[in-house]
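Exam prep: given the inputs below (a chain plus protoporphyrin IX containing FE), describe the expected output before reading on.
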Amino acid sequence: MWRLPQLTRSHVESMTQLVVLVASVVSALVWILRHRFSSARRRDAQGKPIPPGPIGLPLIGSFPFLTKYPELSLDTWSQKFGPLYSVQLGNQLFMIISDPQIAKDLMVTNGSIFSSRKEMFLKSKTIFAGRGITATPYNDTWRQHRRIAAGWLMSKAVESYTHVLDYEATVLVQDLYHDGQAGCAPINPQPYAGRCSLNNMLRIVFGTRTDSIRHPLVAKALRLSREFMNCTGPMSNLTDFVPLLQRIPNPMVTRGKQLHKDLVETYGGMILDIQDRLKAGEDVSDCLVKTMIETNEEEGLDHLDMAILCSAFMIGGVETTASIMQWFSALIPAYPEVQAKAHAELDRVVGRGRLPTVEDEKNLPYIHAIIKEVERCHNPFWLGTPHTNVQDFTYRGWFIPKDTVLVLNTFTMHHDATRHADPYTFNPDRYLHDNTLSSESANLANPYERDHWMFGAGRRICPGMWVAEREVWLAISRMLWAFEMVEIPGEPIDLREYDGLSGRSPVPFRIRLAPRDEQVKVVLGL
Ligand code: HEM
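Solution:
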């Protein structure tokens, strides 16, 4: 009997391609007509044009050049078109900012205009269902969520739970010592860094933690944040810019819907547990969820609001800090002279009888410089989270129409030879005289003196930067204090390729973490 053939993944992909092809032809006509007869949105009332940029293909624009390592294409175009240029992707106009002064002029000085977010189909509408702080437009809902988030993330709040960050950093080093068999067995530090970041966020958001990298929540939470990054690259999803694709079944829409469901089930489920425990009169540690439940009536947050706000913390606060610890671990074995200088500084300032603490940071400028240099060389979000403008704006003679998506091209800014000499070399010395925290450096009057742009800019700047800096400091200074980090012979570490689409971390690698002396075991209490 003849049966309908089973639809395989390749069938679905071919059908999608066919639909895209048909849609391309139709849209090409629309595109030609629109650009032929309607240039109104491309010029302001005085006739000032939008900045130039690459000429893309009909329908999809410059999309094919941005599918892998988009920051490299943005960098190449910035050399050709200058520090502010346009890129068209489907129906969306982007502008790419590659200069600190332009970033400041638009995102800081004109922050009331340039602090909104475009409601992208996948990220904002499908995965976050119009909620959450990260993707919401610049409105009262965002202000409310930002205020609630700040209550747990500003520097004063971070002081109140620094003991948690301190504890998790020690656990990280203990686990690396133990599972790396005191330097006898090769170890991949990546999942350990992931669990350290995860535990910090779990404690802040839910007042809980995992007790081992084998705990099921570790794999689940890390998978959810990685899937989020891979579904929401700012310039990587055709579905966001070709409205037709949003109406037909396609793998990205399916993944987005599934991710929304998984986030609400996982983090919404954890909220319901806390609600039940509070109702039963149990003692629940102070955490974001407890605050939200207790202030629910005055704040008017529903369950979905809370689940998505928690998801934003669990996504924004885990993959990011873990990625910095991972890049550090991948880089340092290749630079024994950097490591030797770091060890000498630690031994001189901290000694061998205790672990470094947050109070030591100001006295350890070289370790501080190593961290800034890792962040300059390996920003986990080269494209950041784009802003959008709520009204037309003309700047330096270029028209920026309302609803343009503005991307901070941090790759180009971090590799600008006039600011960072010999920019492709890993050289912590360049930050030796910069004793600012990145959260302080972001407020410097001269934007060319800012250390790096990893945390974004303006009113949407990362509110998690205080906690991020502190946890990264504790983890990295303690790993350096405890271990000689060495490459495994015959297993070179790839520092060029990345894992992940938007949030980037090194491809899996192994190193040897040799305890520096007998004191390590004693101080770690093992
Ligand atoms: C290395 C660590 C981190 C990096 C590189 C990073 C980077 C960023 C960037 C680039 C933005 C967008 C800024 C802009 O729009 O200009 C952002 C926003 C955000 N980050 Fe972070 N982040 C980090 C850690 C954290 C942590 C630990 C949290 C804690 C929950 C966090 C929570 C958020 C939130 C909620 C937003 C959205 C802010 C808004 O739209 O108003 N981030 N982050």
